[in-house]
Sequence to fold (442 residues):
Amino acid sequence: MVAVIVSIVLLISEHRSSKIDGFRSTLSFFVDPLKYLVDLPTVLVEKTGNFISSYKALKMENEKLREVYLINQTKMLKFSALENENIRLRALLENSFKLGEQVLVAELLSVNIVPYEHLVVVNKGTRFGVHPQQPVLDSNGVVGQVFRALPFSSEIMLITDPNHAIPVQVNRNGLLTIAVGSGQLNRLLLPFLPSNADIRPGDLLITSGLGGTFPHGYPVAVVDEFTSQPSKAFSNITATPKALLDRNRELMIVWSKSTPVPLISKPITNEVEANTRAPQ
Amino acid sequence: MRLNNYAGFFRIIISLILAMCLRIAPWPGALAAFNPDWVLLFLIYWSLAQPEHVGILHAWAFGILVDVLTGRLLGQYALAYSVIIYICLKLHKRLRQFPLIQQGLFIFFCLLLSQLLLFFVKNLQSPAQLHASFWLPVITGTLCWPIVHGALRFVRLSRRVS
Fold:
């Protein structure tokens, strides 16, 4: 009886507020080792795989990676110039510009905590400064957001979870909408588009930066083939996520800088100086 | 005698930790939905076989740990487990006499009740859009009961836990 009452009180108190997060993280000290224990066979297989991979294969992989690195490096050269240009252009428009994001590479633990929800566990937690609602990416696109951060691990909700929605925009024309998870790993739904919206199969959806959780401009998904149904008010469009949600073991947790870079401050100070000098 | 008791209790704890590992083990692809609630099965077995060792408090504690492990709202597994174990403890004398099939039927209803409680809590939390596969662990759990029963019976009798 007492147990039932205590658990109901716990349920209600956590539903109402998040005050007992401390209790949860204390308990997670006992439970988190189990996650690592379950993950151990996968890590061992991977380690032995690395150990016995042949010299030739390694050499080839190394060369391939070097090539990719070179290409990326040259792209980056242009990127920094473009970024500066962008800042200058935005300064002309008297707009602020956010730049610079820090990332932390986290590794997926191969545990399956609930079958009917898309939650995955990674091996970095509050000890590394991870906090809830941080965006999570992989090398292809947005993966999801941190749902709950425990000391040694954190739970990440994938963008395909039925309870998840992400604000996106069409890269081609800046059309804003929301992509909702479908419960299937290879599908997102776009339920809020009118049937005459300017969207085509193959359009890239990027994060719009609205809502404040996801920074602007990361690729999310590609719009699937669809047939327009003029008779309905809302069209029924689906998209395929860019990120390899079920295959990648390395994920990146992102910190975006919250303070925008101050712009056009210098001209103002010059003006002020000019004004103060004028009377002298 | 007292030492033996501690040894027995230790074994129960170890088996439950193993059950928690099984609970979060990654099953390939679509099979994941079939993963039964091992912790509850193990708790039911121990509460039937050794009601003097496993009480509602243990069930509640392991429920809380499972809540943390699976990232649920704290208390929902604790609630479900303590209710089920309460029923099992009330009926353990009768249940031990039952043949395996009748026991299996009882286990089926226990798992169903536990899943119903979880479903109820989840529905309160947010209007759930649950797939029919939410109920699959009840069936697989019932099918796994003979295995759990056999394995834990072997553990209990071979090491003379009593």
